[in-house]
C-alpha cells in the first residue's frame, strides 16, 4: 500500500469520490471506502514532483512514534499521485472529526484558526470556545508542533488562520493543513511559496521562508490566540484574554511579543515561548527534542535526514521571487471534511 511505504500510485488506480474542497492550487477529492483524500493540482506542470516525493520520504524515515505524532498533527503527503509518470497530486488523511463544528444550518465545517482568534459572530455562534486556560494550551500546542518540525529540519512557510485547525477533544490540540507547502530547510518547495495576507513576515519574502520567518509567524499566532484579536502584530499592545496567563507569564509574553518585532535572528526562539506557556506541571515533564533552541540558519543536530526522492518528470517549475510574484493562489481554505461526517 502506498500509504504504508510512500510509493507513487497512479490516479487511475484510485476510486475517486466526491469533490470535498477546492482552492487556487487544486481540488480535494474523497477516496471511496477510505479515510483518505487526494489533493489533485490544477496545473501539474507548476509542481515540483521531486520535492513532493521528498515530503513523502520524510514520513517514511521517522520512527514509529514520530510517524504517529506527525499523522496526528498534520495532513501530511503520504505518497504522490501520478498520471502517466507525472506528479498530479498526493494522498493525505482526512482531518480528525473533533476538529470540526456544526453550523446553525446543520452543515459541518473545519475548526480553522480564524474561529479561535476572532470575536464571536452570529454565523459561528455554535463554535465551542475554549476556556482561558484551554486557550493558553492551544497556543502552546501550536508552538510544540512548529518546534517538532524545526527539530527535524522542516520549514513550514505559510502559517495562517486558514491552514491551522484546532479542537478541545480529548484535549486542546492543533492540526496543520497545506503541508505540501512545507519543505526541508534550504530545500525546494513543491510549488511557488506564498504568504497569506496579514500573516507575512515583513522582513522575509515568501520565496525565502526559513526558521526565522516561522518563528515570527508563530509569535503572530500566539498573540492572536491569547488576545482573540485577528490582526495584532509584534510591537503592538497585547490585550490578553483574562485568566489565560498568570502574572509572570503575562509579563514574559508581552516582552517576547515586543522582541518578535526585531530584526531577523534577534527574535525569540521557540524554546522561549515553550518555557513561558507551559504550566508548572508540564515544566516538570521532559519533552523529547526540546532542550535547546533551534538556530534560524542551521538545521538541528537531531533532524531526520531527508531521503533521496525517486526520479521524476520534467524539469521543476521556476522558483524565486519572480515565480512567487506570479502565483495567485487562492487562500480560501480547502475543506478536508465532507459535510455531515
Keywords:
341 residues; alpha+beta; six-stranded mixed sheet; two-stranded antiparallel ribbon; 12 strands
Short description, anyone?
This protein is 28% helix and 15% strand. It is of the alpha+beta class and 341 residues long.
Q: What do you see in this structure?
A:
- The protein is α+β, with helices and mostly antiparallel strands.
- The protein is built from 10 helices and 12 strands.
- The strands form 4 sheets. Strands 1-5-6-4-3-2 form a 6-stranded mixed β-sheet.
- A hairpin with a 3-residue loop joins strand 2 and strand 3.
- Helix 5 runs antiparallel to helix 6 and helix 5 runs antiparallel to helix 8.
- The chain is globular.
- The C terminus is likely disordered.
Give the overall pLDDT as a whole number: 84
Distance between the termini: 25 Å
- Helix content range of the residues, please? 25-40%
Main-sheet strand order equals: 1-5-6-4-3-2
**Global morphology:** globular
Low-pLDDT segments, ≥5 res: 281-341
In terms of structural class, how would the helical and strand content be classed? Answer: alpha+beta
Proportion of residues in β-strands: 15-25%
Q: Which series of helices and strands comes N to C?
A: HEEEEHHEEEEHHEEEEHHHHH
Query: How many extended strands?
Result: 12
Count of alpha and pi helical runs: 10
Largest sheet: 6 strands, mixed
Rg for CA atoms: 19 Å
Amino acid at each position: 500500500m502506498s500509504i504504508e511505504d510512500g510509493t507513487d500510485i497512479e490516479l487511475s488506480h484510485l476510486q475517486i469520490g466526491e469533490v470535498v474542497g477546492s482552492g487556487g492550487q487544486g481540488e480535494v477529492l474523497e477516496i471511496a471506502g477510505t479515510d483518505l483524500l487526494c489533493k489533485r493540482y490544477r496545473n501539474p506542470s507548476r509542481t515540483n514532483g521531486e520535492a513532493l516525493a521528498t515530503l513523502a520520504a520524510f514520513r517514511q524515515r521517522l520512527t514509529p512514534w514520530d510517524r504517529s505524532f506527525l499523522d496526528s498533527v498534520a495532513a501530511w503527503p503520504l505518497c504522490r499521485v501520478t498520471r502517466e509518470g507525472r506528479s498530479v497530486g498526493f494522498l493525505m488523511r482526512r482531518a480528525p472529526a473533533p476538529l470540526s463544528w456544526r453550523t446553525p444550518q446543520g452543515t459541518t465545517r473545519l475548526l480553522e484558526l480564524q474561529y479561535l482568534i476572532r470575536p464571536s459572530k452570529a454565523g459561528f455562534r455554535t463554535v465551542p470556545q475554549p476556556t482561558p486556560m484551554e486557550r493558553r494550551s492551544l497556543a502552546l500546542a501550536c508552538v510544540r508542533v512548529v518546534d517538532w518540525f524545526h527539530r527535524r529540519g522542516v520549514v513550514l512557510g505559510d502559517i495562517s488562520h486558514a491552514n491551522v485547525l484546532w479542537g478541545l477533544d480529548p484535549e486542546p490540540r492543533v492540526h496543520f493543513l497545506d503541508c505540501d507547502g512545507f519543505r526541508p530547510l534550504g530545500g525546494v518547495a513543491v510549488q511557488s511559496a506564498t504568504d497569506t495576507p496579514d500573516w507575512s513576515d515583513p522582513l522575509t519574502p515568501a520565496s525565502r521562508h526559513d526558521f526565522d520567518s516561522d518563528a515570527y509567524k508563530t509569535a503572530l499566532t500566539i498573540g492572536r490566540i491569547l488576545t482573540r484579536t485577528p490582526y495584532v502584530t509584534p510591537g503592538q499592545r497585547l490585550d490578553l484574554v483574562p485568566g489565560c496567563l498568570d502574572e509572570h507569564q503575562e509579563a514574559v509574553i508581552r516582552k517576547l511579543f515586543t522582541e518578535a518585532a526585531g530584526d531577523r535572528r534577534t527574535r525569540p526562539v521557540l524554546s522561549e515561548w515553550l518555557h513561558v506557556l507551559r504550566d508548572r506541571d508540564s515544566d516538570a515533564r521532559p519533552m523529547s527534542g526540546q532542550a535547546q533552541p533551534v538556530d534560524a540558519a542551521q538545521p538541528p543536530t537531531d533532524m531526520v535526514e531527508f531521503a533521496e526522492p525517486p526520479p521524476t518528470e520534467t524539469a521543476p517549475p521556476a522558483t524565486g521571487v519572480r515565480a512567487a510574484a506570479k502565483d495567485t493562489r487562492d487562500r480560501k481554505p480547502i475543506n478536508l471534511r465532507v459535510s455531515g461526517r
